Amino acid sequence: MMVVSAIVAVGKNLEIGKDNQLLWHLPLDMKYFKEITTGHHVIMGRKSYESIPKKYRPLPNRVNVVVSRQKDLHIEGALVAASINKAIEMAEAAGENEVFIIGGGQIYNLALKTDLVDRLYITRVDASFDADIFFPTIDFNDWNEVSNRKTKMDERNAHDLTFTIYDKN
Ligand SMILES: NC(=O)c1ccc[n+]([C@@H]2O[C@H](COP(=O)([O-])OP(=O)(O)OC[C@H]3O[C@@H](n4cnc5c(N)ncnc54)[C@H](OP(=O)(O)O)[C@@H]3O)[C@@H](O)[C@H]2O)c1
Hints:
This protein has one domain (3-168): Dihydrofolate Reductase, subunit A (3-Layer(aba) Sandwich), CATH 3.40.430.10. The protein contains 4 helices and 10 strands; from the N terminus they run ββαβαββαβαββββ. It has helices at 27-37, 46-51, 84-93, 105-113, and strands at 3-10, 15-17, 41-45, 63-67, 79-81, 98-101, 119-125, 133-134, 143-151, 161-168. Strands 5-4-3-6-1-7-10-9 form an 8-stranded mixed beta sheet, sandwiched between helices. Strands 2-8 form a two-stranded antiparallel ribbon. Bound molecules: NADP nicotinamide-adenine-dinucleotide phosphate (NAP). Residues 8-9, 16-17, 20-22, 44-48, 51, 67-70, 82-83, 102-107, 110, 133 line the site of NADP nicotinamide-adenine-dinucleotide phosphate.
């Protein structure tokens, strides 16, 4: 069975983005994201795909699946899916063992609301930010913590971080 995971970095108030950009530059979290997702299918909303700087997209060494309602959308080097469910089916058909939903706000909301997610990788950034996109509120009674690791701010990472993985009960 393929595991459906979501991976996200959130501020103290579940902030995830503003003006179609991330709210921080955190090399430690980028490294973690790369380690966890490399070799897998990654599913993202069309806005998140466009928010990735051109030189970094499609995300290398991953099958990029972009979710959009646009029927004529073609993206070089990426697959386009008409729904999250279709994107998940594409990963499963390719023999994927763990597919990652990587944002943004609309796609996280929909995936969690419709109970598609089995595993959650949350990076908690220990600060508050001015944001216009938020991660949905999660009832952690429904989730079981499987690992937790903290890092301290340093010269390259302006905030303390906590990396936690949860499995759905
Ligand atoms: N902190 C983090 O971990 C993290 C991770 C990822 C993204 N982000 C941030 O999140 C923000 C972007 O999030 P967002 O909510 O604005 O956009 P988004 O979820 O990335 O993408 C929205 C787009 O997805 C498509 N879509 C949405 N629902 C759909 C459905 N039911 N069926 C088919 N297609 C559907 C639509 O594309 P069309 O308009 O083409 O139809 C829609 O415009 C940015 O600020 C980004 O930096 C943060």
